[in-house]
Amino acid sequence: MLSGSVERLTPTGARLREMRAGDLDAVAALEAELFGGEAWSPALLSAELAASQGQGADRHYIVVEDAADRAEGADGADGVDGSGAILGYAGLWIGDGRGDADLLTIATAARARRLGLARAMLDYLIDRARGAGCGAVLLEARASNDAAQALYLSRGFTPAGRRRRYYSAPTEDAVVMRLALGGPGHQTTGGADRTAGIGPVGSEAV
User: Fold this and answer.
1) Are 178 and 158 in contact (CB under 8 A)?
2) Which tens digit of pLDDT belongs to each residue from 145-164?
3) How confident is the model at residue 191, as a pLDDT?
4) Does the N terminus or the C terminus of the chain have fewer Cβ atoms within 10 A?
């Protein structure tokens, strides 16, 4: 079970926190906007969030919200729960912490790009994987997504292989990247040949 809550401010003042059920409508709308035919369905997003909670949770989902919007909504005018507009979200599969973590998805709204939000989410999830004892973090990026690959390289990831025709809509190869976390002797599951099926095919929009 994953434990501990998070609430922190990004360098721009946006708030990074755990995803909750009340975020799902906004996340689903952003998912459809960013990924089109490859978007996760609302039902899948709900199932993923459920898998991040309670006994046996093996993944972690976070959002970044607009702190200014949240403050405006705190009195109930724009939202009774005081939540701000969702600017981005991300998810990480950790498993039992004895192998490699896997970045499931990471996305920021088009209007919130180049503000360091994706970097803040990625850094937080890397810290979660390290804290859980994982030996490495693995991820896939579209071969054509130079911006995402540049972000990952800047955080220490290196190319580890390629998955042919991994993405659909449109069909495209994925570049597998890996960030080592563990010390010598830590068991990891490798690069492009690691076990598949730990979660739905995700994507990146950063």
Assistant:
1) yes
2) 999 999 999 999 999 999 99
3) 43
4) N
Total H helices, total E strands in the chain: 5, 9
CA distances (Å), origin 58, targets 48, 53, 126: 10, 8, 15
Q: Please, what sign has the CA dihedral across residues 175, 152, 12, 130?
A: positive
Residue 61 designated active-site: no
Which is catalytic among the residues 31, 140, 167, 204?
Answer: 140
> Residue 85 half-sphere exposure, CB side, CA atoms within 13 Å?
11
Name the E strands within the chain: 7-9, 15-18, 59-65, 86-93, 101-108, 136-142, 158-167, 172-180, 204-205
What pLDDT, on the 0 to 100 scale, is given for residue 108? Answer: 95
Rounded to whole angstroms, the Cα distance separating 103 from 93 reads: 6
- Please tell me the distance from the alpha carbon of residue 194 to that of residue 30, in angstroms, as a whole number: 30
Contacts of 162 (CB under 8 A, 6+ apart): 143, 173, 174, 175, 176, 192
Q: What pTM was estimated for this model as a whole?
A: 0.82
- For residue 29, which amino acid is it? A
List the catalytic residue out of 61, 89, 124, 152. Answer: 152
Which residue numbers in the chain have pLDDT < 50?
Answer: 1-4, 74-80, 183-186, 188-197
